[in-house]
Amino acid sequence: MALGLFLAARLSGVLVLAVVARAAGKNPLLLLGRSWDSVWYLRIAAHGYGFTQHTSTGVHSDLAFFPLYPGMVHAVTTISPLGGGAAGLLVSWTAAAAAACGIHRIGLRLYGPAVAVALVLLWGLLPHSVVLSMAYTEPVMAAFAAWSLYAVLTRRWVWAGTLATLAGLARPNGVAVAAAVLAAAGLEVWRRRGRGVSHRLWTGAALAPLGWSGYVVWVGRRQGDPLGGYFTVQRLWGSHFDFGRGALSFTEHMLLHGTRLLFPMALVIVGVSTVLFALLVVDRAPLPLVVHSGVLLLITLGGSGFFESKPRFLLPAFPLLIVVARALVRTARARPWHAAVVAGALAGLSFVYGAYLVVLARSPL
C-alpha cells in the first residue's frame, strides 16, 4: 500500500509537470532527464571524468560530482538500448521506489503500519519531491540511506556499513549515513563497555566511511592535494562550509530586497526542517535517525552557495517527517476528513510547486 501511494503521488506530480511543460512548449521527459546537474552526471556516465567548464562565475570541474550515479547510468546504457537520459530516469525512479520501501520498513519497525504508510506518503509529497522523479542523485542516496539505517536498527552491521559506503559514493552529504552508522556502533560499544562486541560491528563501522572518504581522497590526489583537493574543487563551484555565514548574508539580502519565489520557499523549508529536527530529538527517536538527519541539516545550514538547492539537499532526511506522520495518523483516527484535507493540500503544493521548479523557475534545483 505504501509503495502504491508513493508511486501514485509521484506519477500525479509528473503528469501535472507534463501538462505545464506542454503548455510552455517544452518536452517534459527532456526536462526530467536532462536538467542542470543531470547534464553533468550524464556526461560523466558517457565520457568519464575530466571535463572543466570556465564561466564568469568560476571554474567548474566535474570532479565535484560523486561517481556512483553516473556509474549506474553507464551500466544501464551498456547492457540496454537506452540512452543516457532514459537510463538516468530508470535509475532514479527505481532508486526512489527502493527508498520508499526502506522508509516504510523503518516506520513499520518503530511506529507501526499506519505511521509507516504516512511517512512514505509525506516523503513523496514534499515540495521538492519532484527531484525524486528526475535524473538526480537524491533518490539513489536516499535508497542506500534508508536501507543502511534499517540495517542499523536491526543490528545487521556489515550491511549497514556496506550500504553507507554506497551512500557516501552517491553524494557529498552521503557522509551523514556513515556518521549515523558510526554513532550507533559507538553507542553499542559503550553500552557493552567494549565486551562481547561482534566483529561484524567493527567491520560495519570500518566500512561505513570508505565510500565518501575514498572519493574525496581520490579527487585530492588527482588535484595534487590529497586532503584538500576535493574541497578546492567545491570552492571553485562557489560551495563551501562557512558555518552559515553565507546563507545568513543571502537571507538578509533576500528579506531586504526581495527575490524570486524559490528563494523564500527554500528559507521556509529549511526553517521548518530545523523545527522538525528539534521535535525529532524531543521525541527521542533512535540515535542513528537523529544523527543522520542532524548531519544533513548541519551541512545544509552551514554550507554556502546554491541557496535554492538547500531543500533538495534535505530530501534524504526523511526521519524529520516522523513527527508529522505520527500527528497525521492521530488526526486521521480522530477526524478523517481533516487528515484528507491536509494530504490534499500537501499534494497540491507538491505538484504545482514541482512543476514550477522544473518548467518555469529557470534556476538550478
UniProtKB/TrEMBL annotation:
Membrane-related topology note: Multi-pass membrane protein
Localization in the cell: Endoplasmic reticulum membrane
Keywords assigned by UniProt, alphabetized: Endoplasmic reticulum, Glycosyltransferase, GPI-anchor biosynthesis, Membrane, Transferase, Transmembrane, Transmembrane helix
Membrane spanning residue stretches: 82-103, 201-220, 261-282, 289-307, 313-329, 341-361
Source organism, top-level taxon: Bacteria
InterPro entries from the UniProt entry: PIG-V/Gpi18 (IPR007315)
Location, primary (coarse class): endoplasmic reticulum
A GO term for molecular function: glycosyltransferase activity
UniProt keyword Iron-sulfur, yes or no: no
Pathway of action: Glycolipid biosynthesis; glycosylphosphatidylinositol-anchor biosynthesis
Signal peptide coordinates: none
Name of protein: Mannosyltransferase family protein
Species this chain originates from: Streptomyces cynarae
Biological classification of the source: Bacteria, Bacillati, Actinomycetota, Actinomycetes, Kitasatosporales
